[in-house]
Specification:
13 helices, 240 residues, mainly alpha
Length: 240
């Protein structure tokens, strides 16, 4: 598994594309968090990372599909996946290795944002920041990234066209993140099953963890979606 993961990481960071993708993630979040008047923390008058944790999932909706779109699709297109099957690796190890590499790259993009926390703490020395809420939000952001990564890897294994994999991954992640929440607000569902429809979406569980409370139901939701996505990926690649 680790040999696959290392290969993917080396391939991603062997060109400027990888560094540019991560830099754009940090740049976009930094601009919204510190420069734009409507979302700048300096305009709010209190120490909060809420703007970042509201914006970051939307940026990840583009970043993670871009990271993962070639992971399996290029292997299928070039025929190297058939060669990969001959190596002494179990199917689960190959899929997991690809998945872990995507998740590590996402982490490389998220970890530098700790600087935002330090900056906010420095400029608001007179008031304390909500460390519990921020810690919970980072855990939620990690689980959200892990879920997006599993979905996008699955999409990359479905098609040999990397552009289609990018569009499909982004669309499905968008549906899981925002779609169920939008459907739950339709008047016909209000007061009946709206709560249960909203629970099917990532946004519901992400916001729940971001409050600083780790509920087993939220954790089970994320782990279930990740497991199901990786299971479908494995089945698609090895049971055609």
């Amino acid at each position: 598994m680790w040999s696959i993961c290392k290969k993917e990481l080396n391939q991603f960071f062997s060109s400027l594309t990888g560094y540019i993708a991560i830099s754009l993630f940090l740049l976009i979040n930094g601009i919204f968090l510190f420069l734009l008047n409507d979302s700048s923390i300096f305009e709010n008058g209190y120490a909060s990372m809420d703007q970042f944790f509201d914006l970051a999932p939307w940026v990840l909706l583009f970043l993670i599909p871009a990271i993962s779109m070639r992971s399996l699709s290029d292997e299928l297109k070039s025929g190297t996946f058939e060669l990969l099957k001959t190596k002494p690796l179990k199917p689960l190890q190959i899929v997991t290795g690809k998945y872990v590499s995507i998740l590590l790259i996402a982490l490389f993009a998220i970890i530098p944002t700790f600087v935002y926390v330090i900056t906010i703490s420095h400029f608001n020395s007179s008031t304390s920041i909500d460390t519990g809420g921020i810690a919970g939000s980072y855990i939620g952001l990690f689980l959200l990234s892990a879920t997006f990564a599993s979905i996008c890897l699955c999409c990359s294994g479905i098609t040999s066209n990397s552009v289609v994999a990018f569009l499909m991954g982004g669309f499905i992640c968008l549906v899981f993140y925002f779609g169920f929440n939008a459907v739950s607000k339709i008047s016909i569902f209000q007061g009946t099953v709206d709560y249960y429809i909203e629970m099917l979406g990532i946004d519901f569980h992400y916001k729940s963890i971001s409050r600083g409370v780790l509920d087993t139901r939220d954790l089970m939701y994320f782990f279930s979606v990740i497991f199901l996505s990786l299971f479908i990926t494995k089945k698609k690649l090895y049971n055609e």
